Description:
Blueprint: H1 3-6, H2 28-32, H3 45-48, H4 55-58, E1 77-86, E2 96-100, E3 126-130, E4 136-142, E5 147-149, E6 155-157, E7 160-165, E8 174-179, H5 190-193, H6 198-202, E9 207-208, E10 219-222, E11 225-227
Parallel strand pairs: 1-10, 1-11
Antiparallel strand pairs: 1-4, 2-3, 2-7, 5-6, 7-8, 9-10
Bound molecules: fe (ii) ion.
Fe (ii) ion binds near residues 160 and 162.
Amino acid sequence: MSINEVDRGYHRPAPGTQPEHLHPAYVSSVKRAPTKPLVTIPQTITEITGPRFSSKDIGPPITDLTRQHQQAPLGERIIVAGRVLDDEARPVPHTLVELWQANAAGRYLHPQDQHDAPLDPNFTGFGCALTDDQARYRFVTIRPGCYPWRNHNNAWRPAHIHFSLFGPAFATRLVTQMYFPGDPLLASDPIFNCTADESARQRLIAHFDWDSTIPETALGYRFDIILRGRDQTPVEHRD
Ligand SMILES: [Fe+2]
């Protein structure tokens, strides 16, 4: 790809559609938020390009998290599927999607997670794949449990799945969380609520999806992920 093809730069996020750096209800943000105004830097070749991952780089995709061990993990089996689009609804094919999550009891397979809940020997909680030609991805997993955290008294995170995407450039890098519809913990979750824009927050919640639900096997959830897009050359209109 030539520089000329990409030098139009990527859209800046609309105000309120990204988490505030300082959101006092999310206690960790108080110490790490910048104390001085941010400096907007121009988008150069460093920002408008990025690594491209192929199947050779990532090895065999891990799309079924329920078949990584000798037995099936405990929990409610679910399908999580969707498309990766840019903010002009253009598909982003062949891009790396990674996810990680707690098990059905709300515990991560990680040494720092000492939450008093059982590990599941049949669940690792990590998946990765490239989107297909039409920018689709699909994972089979189990619904993660809610877990306590020490942000405030009696704090519990809503059930969520972490996602990481690169897209075509460092400017499109996205690390986010997917939530489940109807979760009563969303209303009091400081991480979910540190994005001011209501419609932007709603984009973090998956939709229950009959079309991907498999009878007697798994409920389906649709979660489309939107990356920053580039300004597109307008179509020429002739009178
Ligand atoms: Fe988490």
